[in-house]
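Hey, weird one. I pasted the Biogenesis of lysosomal organelles complex 1 subunit 2 sequence into the form twice and got a warning about non-standard characters only the second time. First submission, copied straight from the form history:
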Amino acid sequence: MHPHQSPPHRAHLSPTRSYPPLQDPAVETAEEATEPAEEDINELCMDMFKKMAIYLTGELTATSEDYKLLENMNKLTSLKYLEMKDIAVNISRNLKDLNQKYAGLQPYLEQISLIEEQVAALEQAAYKLDAYSKKLEAKYKKLEKR
């Protein structure tokens, strides 16, 4: 205590004065902390290294599993693309076959078109012939009545 200060009396303490909060018993103060023995430090270090090794092993295992999953996905994607390539090759082959067949049918299709035009012309000629024959019949009947 300072020589000029008098010890505090309870009578001088005001009831509204705030006191520092009580410290949590789990929190050690600087005066209470003691340095652990060297054997304890070694044990703690060994425990820390073991736990760190377990943690890193888990992390590496998870990463390895992720890469295996990606590898499997890539293999499946590759197989799917191979199937799609086969389908595309088959479609291309079928289209070539169809084009060749169409080219082979083209002369026949042209002949059908030509025959269709000729039939239409023949039909028109038949109508004209029919009309002409009706006129002739009418003239014959007119002449026959005389």
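That's the output from the first submission. The warning seems to come from a hidden character in my clipboard, not from the data itself. Residues 6-15 have pLDDT under 50 and may be disordered.
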